[in-house]
Design goal:
Elements lengths: L6 H12 L3 H8 L3 H9 L6 H10 L7 H8 L14 H4 L27 H12 L5 E5 L6 H11 L8 E5 L9 H9 L9 H9 L4 E6 L8 H10 L3 E7 L8 E5 L14 H4 L3 H13 L10 H10 L4 H8 L7 H6 L4 H4 L14 H10 L3 H10 L6 E2 H8 L9 H10 L4 E4 L10 E3 L2 H13 L3 H19 L8 H10 L1 H13 L3 H17 L3 H13 L7 H16 L3 H17 L3 H17 L3 H18 L2 H18 L2 H18 L2 H16 L4 H17 L3 H17 L3 H18 L2 H17 L3 H18 L8 H12 L4 H13 L2 H8 L9
Parallel strand pairs: 1-4, 1-5, 2-3, 3-4
Antiparallel strand pairs: 6-8, 7-8
Helix pairs in contact: 1-3, 2-3, 4-5, 7-8, 9-10, 13-14, 13-15, 19-21, 19-22, 20-23, 23-25, 23-26, 25-26, 26-27, 26-28, 27-28, 28-29, 28-30, 29-30, 30-31, 30-32, 31-32, 32-33, 32-34, 33-34, 34-35, 34-36, 35-36, 36-37, 36-38, 37-38, 38-39, 38-40, 39-40, 39-41, 39-42
Length: about 850
């Protein structure tokens, strides 16, 4: 049968035929999902450019495109040309017109529009219209909007079920045996005689085309088999179920209802785009219903977006908070969200009691748990950002007082939508699945933990577990296993934060020291420099008379992070404190490691004699310990100190000694470092060809172990070698690559080296003005952090500096130099990398 449709209906059907969501199609044609929704509903017409893109992505035949664009551009709401099957590439209506009148229905009438679920409604409608789908279960946590979504789907499908669409509310039914009676009451079947209710239902529905919406099935889930039998006996009846857990019977199709789509609060889109996010739309709509003058503005946009994110995109939570706008503005509401559940009260009186507050919604589900499940649920509340099964077993049942298997209990809570799976083993996130709670549910769990008087013990177990985990991970954060272990620490970073916070607040200083000391390398390698320093500073501020290795490590890592942020004087003092503690403890390994870092710090500051002395002492420690790794690191450090001081021959000799030990160990990281140092020593002695081969091997090994600091430095060395042999273009490209690494890594010193290299490259290419600007910028950066140019580099830099000066007058040179010295670092980098920037205008 030919079916006339609007352009919007054709677009929706064609989109779904290709399997695109509205968000995906919007990304393709460069608009917002809301625009696609409005076009499909007939409220907006696409621009000509958008219509052309739609024609391309929806594969409209070339010969039909002119007609397609004319149709797409017709005024919304005006006369619409009929589209028939086959038009514009098999266009068709999304659903065939029914041959029956609208059937009987007892569906609740929504008093407010359903926001942000358009694609989900379409998807569910399509699923339920498939012949093979007889039972569709919508699962999800309290407040996610399962009921409202199901009602909307059922109402849209009413025309397809000529014998009725019936809403069966089960919130007051607690006996599973009464479910057939509840269905019978709704569909108009009366009990009578000796015939059972189920038999009467089968007799009534056997030949009818009906849809049953069974709402809140979780508390009568054992009635699932009765529902399955009813559907088996009535082949043209379908059921849609809302439940926090699946029915787990044959033929069931499950659909986990997701939260509303949220904006990225770290980088908010423009106001008009932000307003189209479903969670924000819902907040604004509900807020305006209680405060008619409320609107999304530049002033409140961030607070509104953050509120929605903090409420996990849960429709019920967003609605309840938005209703408070008549009393408090978004920023004030946000400030009170630390006590979210206490705030989310005062729901509509015509809603069921369990939905009047989020507390009631979650509490209603909690009350249905067994005693053991309640205990596990409450204890799981201590985890922040998710957990693995091993962590739950160690923290939630360390004494074996729970009579249920922890993993089995988690699975039960997962089935009841109080817990979610955040990652699976096949996601590449490690060997174990990870679980999580929505934050609103987690807060309720913590309240129950307090009520059970188990909070102190559970938090203690949590902190001790993550102390042990951090300690176990630390030895694996270097070498082949580093990536896997660092990824594990990243997965549990929120838990480490929570354990640290609890330990510091509760005076558990040894736990805090242990966690902070063990996480130092993780914070350093993953770039959590500011956060790491704050934790370490707070831990150090808790005075302790006892010298412990953990306290020494805390000072050591505080120094390392300070150095990475160019706080060299602070780093020197902190390393000094760490060294005192290690020596007091007679810890040779710790002493040697800190000596290495102090040697490097002195080298960077131009204190070469001190750097050499400290590196020699570190070598002595490595030999005493018989620790080849520490020995090789110290030899590399001494080679660097000798090279920086200008003693290239000694630098070459020590680098060769370190390389021999590194090759014995077959340690690519140390081989790369030592080869690079040897390459530098040979390079600046004029042995360019041999140095080039060494740099190539060093870079290859650095890439294998994914060491970005070493990669950046080797690229800079290769670039300087290219300058030495007069290859200006090769040098510039290598310096650009190196600078990009240094920018990603952060730290002024590396950036200044890359900028200085590109300044020499500009001079090499005859661009005196650019060379002067970049030289001025690099010099200002080095002056800021107090690190001089190494003596062995000065002749090369001086020659290119003089070459650039010869290209300009003295006044032009000074003006360009001063401009570079005053330029913000981000502009300097953009200019050095050749990006378009106004700084050169």
């Amino acid at each position: 049968m030919d079916v006339a449709t609007t352009f919007g209906e054709w677009l929706r059907a064609r989109r779904k035929e290709f399997g695109y969501t509205q968000e995906e199609l919007a990304d393709m044609v460069g608009c917002s999902p809301a625009t696609i929704r409005k076009i499909e509903s007939g409220d907006r017409r696409p621009s000509r450019q958008m219509a052309e893109l739609l024609a391309e992505y929806l594969e409209v035949p070339q010969e039909d495109r002119a007609a397609f664009i004319r149709m797409a551009r017709s005024e919304p709401g005006g006369p619409v040309t009929a589209l028939r099957p086959g038009t514009f590439g098999n266009g068709h209506a999304p659903h065939a017109e029914p041959e029956h009148e609208t059937p009987a229905s007892n569906l609740p009438i929504g008093l407010t529009p359903l926001i942000g679920r358009e694609d989900t409604v379409d998807d569910l409608c399509d699923r339920l219209l498939r012949d093979e789908v007889r039972l569709l279960t919508l699962t999800g946590p309290p407040g996610i909007g399962k009921t409202r979504l199901a009602v909307e789907v059922a109402s849209q499908l009413a025309d397809h079920f000529p014998d009725g669409v019936f809403f069966v509310g089960l919130s007051t039914v607690t006996d599973p045996d009464l479910v057939p009676a509840a269905i019978a009451q709704v569909v108009g079947v009366r009990e009578g005689g000796s015939q059972s209710v189920t038999a009467a239902l089968v007799e009534h529905m056997r030949d009818r085309r009906m849809l049953l919406l069974l709402d809140n099935f979780e508390q009568v889930v054992s009635a699932a088999t009765a529902v399955g039998a009813l559907l088996a006996a009535c082949p043209t009846v379908k059921a849609m179920v809302t439940s926090r857990e699946a029915l787990n019977i044959r033929g069931e199709r499950q659909f986990p209802v997701p939260p509303l789509h949220l904006p990225n609060t770290a980088s908010l889109p423009p106001l008009d785009a932000l307003a189209e996010y479903p969670a924000v739309q819902l907040f604004v709509e509900r807020a305006a219903s209680v405060q008619p003058t409320f609107a999304l503005t530049e002033d409140n946009a961030r607070a509104v977006a953050t509120l929605c994110a903090r409420l996990d995109g849960l429709p019920l939570a967003i609605e309840l908070v938005a209703a408070r706008v008549r009393l408090l503005g978004p920023a004030q509401l946000l400030a009170r969200l630390d006590h979210r559940l206490a705030l989310v009260t005062g729901g509509q009186r015509d809603l069921p009691e369990r939905q009047q507050t989020l507390r009631n919604a979650i509490g209603w589900s909690y009350d249905l748990l067994t005693h053991e499940e309640q205990a596990l649920f409450a204890r799981l509340g201590v985890f922040v950002g998710g957990w693995a099964a091993a962590a739950a077993e160690a923290v939630c049942n360390p004494r074996g007082d729970l009579e249920i298997d922890v993993l089995g209990g988690i699975e039960s809570l997962l089935n009841k939508s109080l817990v979610q799976i955040s990652s699976r083993p096949d996601d590449g996130d490690g060997p174990e699945a990870r679980f999580t709670m929505l934050e609103t549910i987690r807060e309720y769990a913590l309240e129950q933990l307090e009520a059970r008087d188990e909070a102190d013990d559970t938090h203690q177990m949590h902190a001790e577990y993550y102390l042990a985990l951090a300690g176990a991970a630390e030895p694996h954060l270097m070498g082949a296993e580093a990536e896997e272990w660092l990824g594990m620490l990243e997965s549990d970073h929120d838990n480490f934060r929570a354990a640290l916070r609890w330990a510091l607040d509760e005076g558990e200083h040894e736990i805090a020291l242990g966690i902070a000391g063990a996480l130092g390398r993780f914070w350093s390698l993953y770039g959590y420099l500011t956060e790491g320093r704050r934790w370490l500073d707070e831990v150090m501020s808790r005075r302790s008379a006892a010298a412990t290795r953990d306290r020494a490590r805390v000072f050591q890592w505080a120094a390392a992070l300070a150095r990475k942020q160019d706080s060299y004087e602070e780093a020197r003092d902190l390393y000094g404190n760490s060294l005192i503690l290690y020596r007091e403890l007679e810890d040779l390994a710790g002493t040697g490691e800190v000596l290495e870092h102090l040697a490097m710090l002195n080298i960077l500051k131009g204190n070469y004699d001190t750097g050499i002395r400290l590196a020699e002492e570190a070598i002595e420690m490595g030999r005493k310990l018989g620790d080849r790794y520490r020995l090789t690191r110290a030899l590399y450090m001494l080679a660097g100190a000798a090279i920086y001081s200008g003693d290239l021959a000694r630098g070459e000799s020590v680098a060769r000694e370190g390389l021999a030990v590194a090759r014995e160990m077959d340690n690519s990281e140390l081989i790369s470092y030592c080869i690079n140092a040897l390459g530098v020593a040979l390079h600046w002695q004029g042995k360019h060809e041999e140095a080039g081969r060494l740099y190539d091997e060093a870079l290859q090994r650095a890439r294998v172990v994914n060491d970005p600091v070493n990669i950046a430095q080797i690229l800079a060395n290769q670039a300087e070698l290219a300058l030495h042999v007069g290859d200006c273009e090769e040098s510039a490209e290598l310096f650009r690559q190196s600078l990009r690494y240094f920018v990603e890594l952060g730290g002024t010193l590396g950036i200044s080296e890359g900028v200085m290299g590109l300044a020499m490259g500009a001079s090499c290419r005859g661009d005196g003005e650019l060379s002067a600007v970049l030289h001025g910028a690099a010099e200002a950066m080095r002056r800021q952090i107090g690190t001089p140019i190494p003596p062995f580099v000065r002749p090369l830099r001086g020659s290119y500096l003089q070459q650039a000066k010869s290209l300009l007058t003295e006044a032009e040179w000074q003006a360009a130099w001063d401009r570079g010295a005053a330029m913000p670092p981000e502009e300097v980098v953009a200019l050095a990398l050749g990006e378009e920037i106004a700084a050169r205008a």
